[in-house]
Amino acid sequence: MIKEKIVKVETSKRMEEIISLCKRRGFVFQGSEIYGGLGGVYDYGHYGTLLKNNIRDSWQKSMIQDRDDVYLLDSAIFMHPTTWVASGHVGNFDDPLVECRKCHNRMRADHILEGFGISADKMPIDFINKELDKLREEKKLKCSTCGLSDITSAKKFSLMIKSNFGSPTDELKEENVVYLRPETCGGIYLQYKNTVDSLHPKLPFGIAQIGKAFRNEIAARQFIFRTREFEQMEMQYFIHKKDTKEKYEMWKDVRMKWYLEQGIPKDKLKWYKHEKLAHYASEAYDVKYDFSSLGGFDEVEGIHARGDWDLSQHSKFSGVDLSYYDDETKERFIPHIVETSAGLNRLVLMFLDNAYTEDNLGGEKRLFLKLPKQLAPIKIAVFPLLRNKPALVEKAKEIYDILKTYFMCEFDDNGNIGKRYRRQDEIGTPYCVTVDFETIEKDNMVTVRDRDTGNQERIKINELKEFFAKKF
Ligand code: ATP
Question: Which atom of ligand 1 is nearest to the CA of 343?
Answer without folding.
Answer: 20
